[in-house]
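ERR on first pass: missing label on line 2. Operator R.T. fixed the label and resubmitted. Corrected input:
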Amino acid sequence: MLLLNTLRNEKVRVLAGLTKRQVPNAEATVDRIVALDDQRKAVQTSTDALLAERNRLSGEIGKLMKAGRREEGNAMRDKVNAIKEEVTKGEDELNAVKAELEDLLITLPNVPHQLVPTGVTEEDNEIFRPFDGELPTLPEGAKPHWDLADEYGIFDLELGVKTTGAGFPVFTGQGARLARGLVNYFLDFNTAAGYTEFQPPLLVNEATARATGQLPDKEGQMYHVTEDDLYLIPTAEVPLTNLYRDVILDEKDFPVKLTGYTPCFRREAGSYGAHVRGLNRVHQFDKVEVVQIVHPEKSYEILDEMVAHVGKLLDELGLPFRILRLCGGDTGFTSAMTYDFEVWSAAQKRWLEVSSVSCFETFQSNRLKLRYRAEKGTELAHTLNGSALALPRIIAALLENNQTEDGVTLPEVLHGYLGMTKLKKIR
RNA sequence: GGAGGAAUGGCAGAGCGGUUUAAUGCACCGGUCUUGAAAACCGACGUGGUGAAAGCCACCGGGGGUUCGAAUCCCUCUUCCUCCGCCA
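pass 2 clean. output:
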């Protein structure tokens, strides 16, 4: 959620940013919000004055009663009762104004960073770091990962349909082991870089989903357990970042670095077609996430650090990748700047998104009330997160890019985790 | 699942209808003393709203109510503790 002071003091920058995202009626909305906030202040001030008067008179009554001057006390009660009615009116108005303000404020996405390119769709994303090597060329008859999955017994989509439905792959045999090995490898890689590992709940309450911005914006993307009013997490970002909801840190606590493995659940409503075959897009998938909570002055430096971290991970896996800087229209609602990592899927001959690394500035911390003690008072911290990494498309790329006559060769970093150097055909 | 108890400032812990921003202790911070440190002493020491400031307002687990006035009384939800039962 954007800060009211930002809307007031940096209107030009805010509007320019919102225009990059093609937010309709941005100026009218901002003006309306500021007007509502003015109204809020006015009503609050007058109501507070009434309350002050009530408190003062109530104190008087106490003294009169103690002194045994009952009649004077009773007369004053009537006076206070009259004030009380006005207070109630004022509080009702205040609540109504606050609610409208909140409803409007929550519709505004984050203001993109200055360097974020203008644009609407993924076509407009900037190729921030192109792949500079040679893309692997596969032998004649190379197969996409869904075919390889059958030959190698990696995962079974039909079993998933039987137990649950489409988009819930069942990993099998050496495929299940590959997934487990990747999770362990990623977690070890992250903790070696100073991230502390957590195992958070997979279901979260409404307050948690709101604080990181999944609600109300992405309501339809989450599975909702209506009976208990809980949501299945679409990413570990949600519970991990919320560990620090309503927290006031000291500057010396920075940077807070968290990592965690969780399954992620996404309804992916409305995504169908050729590009969702195999593991390209599924409803449940494994992901290891990294989160940082940092000093506002450091956040973009840290963003670069996190981008380098993910890049190193992909280098070690030996996967060709490129880095995009997302344009305004493609940047997530809550993010100020996002880098996407895409690995080359050699058999499908297309780039697959495997990680998204974002800086949210104060957009999340404002809703989280995540602050630190500054020289004078408290300030909102900055939050960042990124995938390191999401599994399915990594598995897809490993299978496709490394397929040979006698098996899928595994990158050296995984040998120890899997107890093998290559995946073997089972049929 | 049954019975009882409890939730107060970073921590511990008073207060149980009216001068409560909330006793006291510890921790932390500034200072005096000291070569330095400790001890001792002095001071400061929650968050948010409003305001130039003084000040004013709200917050004692969440929500609602009673009252002129609520940390204090009532209702409700949540969490934790103790005992009993059941169980990975």
